[in-house]
Design goal:
Chain lengths: 93, 231
């Protein structure tokens, strides 16, 4: 208990000690964890809808839909990769 | 449940339908404005009870902004605090029987587009337009369209996650209420006995827990995305 309070005091440079240090970092990472799932889904579904729309306009069978889904998968991977590697890049600098 | 789960149209102004979402947003605006007005009258050096509570809230918001965006971006605290207060009240509106404005994709998506505009506006401002545009060609130029699509996905995922969580809770709650109404009618006491206590734990989870958590997540992600774009 005592150690905890000491830590709290050291890490609070402002008078507003809402959340301190590593505990706060944990919350931030948890928030990102909840975002990973949906940021994987949205580009793929977006690709599906855009591809389907173009297919209907142009009159092709499903070539645009398939290619846009593949594009969506790549974008989804890139988004998640960026999100996960965010902290590593900060350490490099 | 005559027209699905969409917001009801209350009235029309010159052919523009005014839905429950808009009127409930007005209610929140009135409540917040009136509260702010009366909370900031007669501010004193030695704060009273109300002023103490308000100061704690403002301090907490500034602390949160400082922690996640850094000391140099503490100027974002008023916007982020407004967003947090509005979203929390909006999500909790289901507890008192109103339809939460965030159960409408128009509300959540417009808030997400505001965040999107902030990400790119402040990104351009702090990095300079050239450096900002060059950021899209990383790691190499062929990936530019993928980067652009990836950026466009941010507001959509932000807006839809909030909308999905709140509207999901709303649909489950209204299904539960109609099921309980049928059950109560089966017993035939003439009193809606099941609707009194059974929905309480569901309200605690779907409205209180999910509502507060989702508003916190929305604000947190906005802050992190904006500060990431600026660094």
């Amino acid at each position: 208990m005592y150690i905890g309070m000491e830590y709290y005091k050291i890490n609070s440079d402002c008078e507003c000690d809402f959340m301190a240090g590593s505990k706060f970092k944990m919350y931030e990472n948890l928030v990102f964890l909840t975002q990973i799932g949906i940021s994987m889904v949205v580009p793929i579904l977006g690709g599906l809808l855009i591809g389907k729309f173009i297919d209907e306009k142009v009159g092709t069978n499903s070539i645009f839909m398939l290619s846009f889904i593949v594009l969506g998968v790549v974008v989804a991977f890139m988004n998640v990769y960026k999100m996960v590697m965010r902290d590593y890049r900060k350490k490099d600098k | 449940m005559d027209a699905g789960f969409g917001p009801r149209i209350i009235f029309e102004i010159g052919g523009i339908p005014i839905t429950e979402t808009v009127t409930n947003t007005w209610l929140i605006m009135i409540a917040v404005i009136v509260f702010s007005y009366f909370a900031t009258r007669n501010l004193e050096k030695i704060p009273g009870k109300l002023q103490n509570a308000i100061e704690a809230l403002v301090d907490a918001i500034y602390g949160l902004t400082k922690q996640s965006m850094g000391d140099d971006k503490v100027g974002f605290a008023p916007y982020m605090g407004t967003l947090l207060i509005y979203l929390t009240i909006a999500n909790l509106l289901g507890l008192v029987g109103f339809r939460p404005p965030t159960a409408d994709v128009n509300t959540t998506l417009s808030l997400a587009i505001m965040t999107f505009a902030m990400i790119h506006g402040f990104g351009m401002k702090s990095k300079g337009v050239g450096t900002y545009l060059k950021g899209f060609t990383e790691p190499f130029a062929a990936l530019t369209p993928l980067n652009v699509i990836g950026e466009l996905a941010t507001p959509i995922s932000l807006g839809f996650r909030l909308f999905g969580n709140i509207v999901g809770g709303l649909i489950i709650m209204s299904l539960l209420y109609s099921a309980l109404a049928v059950l109560s009618a089966k017993i035939g006491l003439g009193i809606p006995i099941f609707q009194t206590a059974v929905p309480a734990p569901f309200h605690i989870y779907f409205d209180l827990f999910a509502g507060v958590l989702q508003s916190f997540i929305f604000v947190m992600l906005s802050m992190v995305f904006v500060s990431m774009a600026m660094d």
